[in-house]
Amino acid sequence: MEFLRAIEEKWQGKWEKAKIFEADPDPKKPKYFITVAYPYPNSPQHIGHGRTYTLADVHARYMRMRGYNVLLPMAFHYTGTPVLAMARRLADNDTGLINDFINVYKIPKEKVKEFTDPMTLASFFHQEIKTGMKEIGFSIDWRREFTTIDPHYNRFIEWQFQKLRKAGYISRGSHPVGWCPKDGNPVGQHDTVGDVEPEIGEFTLIKFRQNNLVFPTATLRPETVFGVTNIWLNPKTKYVKAAVDAEQWIVSKECVEKLTHLNRKVKVLETFGGKDLIGKLVENPATKTKIPILPADFVDPKNATGVVMSVPGHAPYDYVALENLRKTPSQLKEYGLAPKTIESVKPISLIEVPGYSEIPAADAVRKMNIKEQTDPKLEEATKEVYRHEFHNGIMKPNTGKYSGLSVNEAKDKVKQDLIAEGKATTMYELLNRPVLCRCKTECIVKIVQDQWFIDYGKQEWKTLAHKNLDNMEILPEELRSEFNNVIDWLHEKACARKSGMGTRLPWDKDWIIESLSDSTIYMAYYTIVKHIKEHKLQPAQLTDEVFDYVFLGIGKTAEIAQKAKLDAKIIEEMHSEFMYFYPLDSRHSGRDLVPNHLTFMIFNHTAIFPEKLWPRQIATNGSVMMEGAKMSKSFGNIIPLREGLAKFGADPIRLSVLSTAELLQDAEFSPAIAKSMRERLERLYKFASEVAKNSRNTKTSENSLTAIDKWMLSRLQEHIRKATEAMDKLAVRKAIHSVLYELEQDFQWYQKRITAQKGHKKSATDFVHSQVLDAQIRMLTPVAPHLCEELWKMMGEKGFVSLASWPTADESMINIEAEENETLVMDVLEDTLNIMKATGMTPKKIYYYTACSWKWKVYLEMLEKARHGEAKLSEIMKELAAEEDSKKNMKEIANFAQKALKEVNRIPQDRREKVLKMKALDEKAAIEDAKDLLKQRLKAQVEVYDEEDSQRYDPKYKAALSTPFKPAIYIE
RNA sequence: GCGGGGGUCGCCGAGCAUGGUCAAAGGCGCAGGCUUCAGGAGCCUGUCCUGUAGGGGUUCGUGGGUUCAAAUCCCACCCCCCGCACCA
């Protein structure tokens, strides 16, 4: 362990000193520009974060070895509420959080106290994260580092927003948000107790009237207005009569504040108990019928208006409440209701649903055996009825012009019509209430006025975004359809808030641009920030005109430079560096950013840059699981990255997060995995040391290589090919498997073979070893760069392996025959073992009989036929019969052909081609060659004969059973 | 609801895009053996059923279909996970 850490530190030092990851424009080299979503410095990074960044680094390192001038920069996202919220929670003495900081992150108590200041907190974690990134060996060009609250960056964002505004993509309006009335702030998921997302829904308020008095019943199913039999009020709670805009409404007392937040003018005129209104009649605006107001305890005054229309035919709650009322005459009496009033209230059926009776609500209630209106099962019953009615329900004739429509269609039509006729209005309400703010106050819905939006809903903009996406590579490709959907769905996105850190809207300084909106095109900023720092430019010098020229080539440099009090040369330099590195070749992030940041990036690029500068690739990855649970702060199961590095080493951690899962999947991490990775690397190191000792100056001429050497080298090419193909798709797991495990398997077979083989030349072995190791080290470098640098040096190579080239498969070393021979040996061994198992024999001597030449000839002819479709026995027999020399043993041939044909027809096409290319195999020689190994593994004597060998020992006449690729076997 | 991903031999998990070499990689677990003073670990062998000759049978969520041939292609259904915003 100490040893690995020492290596890491050593090479990180060397890289930094040699500045090998600092990328400047180089016209002689193709460039490759990779960025990863910059981190929020509000807590230390953990191993989960490490995955995304490591993947990006591996990508960068791979492309560098493929000969590209790779730029991988990094910055820090101070914008918005994450940093602020963290500081505030600490200031509020959130003990859980403070404990995490002290115990999990091992931050000194004294230091944590200082974190109530957001800037102190941010800059501390900024450095912490940066150090971690260095310790894990990311190949970042640190000269380009910045934060999103740097005044220069603010200028850049201002420029971006002016551009968006001029393009007509900024709009303003009001929209509903979850809101804490006490804090006076919008609440999102992370602001609520239990991290619940406030779900905002739109209720339809249908205006039942009593003369001029409006009873706004809140419903999510306006189409059922035709089945209303009564209105429910909660008799035990307070209601008010209030002037709402130009009308007089009856609503629950609790509703008043909500209406105010929804921008209605509300003035309470009178307060009274719900029971005071029981028994009064109101008119249904849709049917003009007069219906009574009845009492129901299930009515929640906190939900919407607290006034509810009753549709007992289709709403289980209403059905049960009505039944309850009917059965308790005492209640009727209490509220002065005549039994006759109740008797006349009968469920009305207005929707026809297959599988249900006239009264679906009654069916559901009976099925679930619900007796009381307070039964929680009613929730489920309601959902069930609704689900069926929504999908399969048809409106009945008693719904007038909606008759025959599906519920699905009628729902919206009824709503729109009622609103248009002034018989209804709408009200936002939380669907999953109660939602509690962290301050324990119940949240409500507020309509925020004059909110600024980026209008991703614009059709022509969507078209551009689709165009970009269509020409982009998406890794993994499976997510493309999700991007397509997100582009279609997005609409106005609130882009500024009144609090937090960041850039102020240039035209309305009260607002601060929020973090998902100031992080959409910043990749461009990396290409110029180097110059800003180098020349110590002032923010004021970065005028909109300067940016226009640098990024878009608009204007004349001399004029711009003069106005900005800036050297024209610097503007040119920035422009050409931008033009060199842009467009962005690859964008990395966690897959959770697909529906927001990544898609915003696409949109904003298309809005601001010409098509040739749009991003070319997006690569996303899943998260890291720790013992089955997602690694995240709230679960308390995190391992801070730096702690992991100290414990397991950088290369093992890199390997761990990338080798256990492919892009889309979540990766499993555990100390055991990290440990086994470390051991795997240590074994490689040990082996490499051995090889290094032996293979200095290994120069072996090709002709001293034996079959098994050629086999190993041939296999090596296949592994190189596979690893390269995998890396091109960022299937790092696959690549690692190919390089580390599959290659290793072949290599172990090779070792077994040469160990068993008497007199295998050492020079050949050394040559093969060094070939394998050379390729293996190169291919492992992107994932385990530290160890590989060390091995590289050990192998006597000069310079950095980080800058060496990725190996390419050498076609000339691919040896089909050697591979087929070896496959034969493996098959023969396996078959023999199988026979031993089936018979329970312990063999003394084993005889193999390889197929004779005519069998091969027939076999190959069949293959040739099969190449152009299925080979037919009759055809082949005819042809064979025509041939002179085969006439003598037609019966034998027919026998064999029948068996072989079955084989031939199920061989895949590419293997057929291979076999045809190399013709008959010298099976006898192949087995002879592996005789030492076979003897050793089978613990028996081994003899090989050609089946037609007259000298053969064959007491059981097995030889005739041989077929190509399947020698006959006799064991005694 | 809308959208996305997924259901593989005890468990985890490849393979499915380009159907055949798939009873289906690898790891874990389990069983036996070797090694070690011991502990850990390492190595080897086995691990669907069945068979005294390399074979046969039944498997890849469920049910159909296409094909000489399907874990792999098509259709329907069931189940699980994730996202739906002003919040990163």
Structure characteristics:
six-stranded mixed β-sheet; RNA-binding; alpha/beta; 15% strand
In short:
This protein has 972 residues and is of the alpha/beta class.
Structure in words:
By secondary structure, this protein is of the alpha/beta class. Helix content is 47%, strand content 15%. The chain contains 35 helices and 30 strands. The strands form eight sheets. A six-stranded mixed sheet has the order 10-8-9-6-5-16. A five-stranded parallel sheet has the order 2-1-23-24-18, covered by helices on one side. Strand 5 (200-210) and strand 6 form a beta hairpin. Helix 12 (360-367) packs across helix 13, helix 15 packs across helix 21 and helix 25 crosses helix 29. The mean pLDDT is 86. The protein binds one RNA strand of 88 nucleotides through helix 3, strand 17, helix 16, strand 19 and strand 20.
